[in-house]
Amino acid sequence: MNTTLRAYIDLVRLQFSFAWPLLFCSGYLLATMTYGGFEWFMLAKVALIGFFGFEAGMVLNDYVDREIDRIDADPGLLTKYWRLFGTRPLPAGLIPPGHALALFCVLAGIAAVLILTLPYPHSVYVLLIMAYCFAIEIFYQKEKGIPQVFPFPQVIGRTDFALYPVAGYICAGLPNMTAFLYFIFFYPFALAHLGVNDLIDEANDRARGLRTIPTIYDAERTRYWIAGFTIIHAMMAVLFITRLEPVGQAGIYAGLVLLVIANVVILKYKTPDAALKVLPLFHVAMVLYAGGICAGALLAL
User: Fold this and answer.
1) Helix, strand, coil: what percent of the chain each, to 5?
2) Which end of the chain has fewer CB within 10 Å, C or N?
């Protein structure tokens, strides 16, 4: 395969691209259960918004971090998991930064045009959420290099991931209690997931001088961070499942089982390799959540 094509596949983390539209559409389909108005054409449009919007965020992440990513104490861990060909294209010189910035603008522009075709006021709400998510991504990546005693940039920055399915909800619905419950259910998951990534990448983050959860505290307390937010996530699930069909509820239960297994392994084996081995369980749990919500909503039509 062409080297440049491989680099762009790594830049957008293409192997995970199916998950982002699924998560975004779970919000949309959940909204149709309350507001009605389901359309297959609309579902396809929402999926495309989710795809282009999230991929733009992936490119933005690499663009902002292009200089700090040149420092890689242990490139064999997260890089090979997240990137099919195991490269960081910008620091490796495989893609010029200007080309990456142009790609971000194209992807974000396509998402914005699609969003503007949504009915008012949904289009305005979703566009504002997208703008916030891009802004907070830049804030998070820049601020985590500043000395601090609490990971405020991470805590604030992870709101973008938690707002992602909420934005899907607002494509057809309005900000309401269901949207809020989805947010408070997904936000602790995002923080636990962040802890796992930081635990795996601790050596690189220390080499780069970044203030992440393990570098502010230590690996042991990061494991407690992961477990603590997983517990909060499960508690919020008790509230969120009241808004779901039985199939959606089953997806939540199945995902929580995987998270329990992941936490047991992380707490027992206490190594970055152990955390890396169970990181896929977090992603499968997310797919089960989103897939269950989508399936439950479609079956209820």
Assistant:
1) 80, 0, 20
2) N
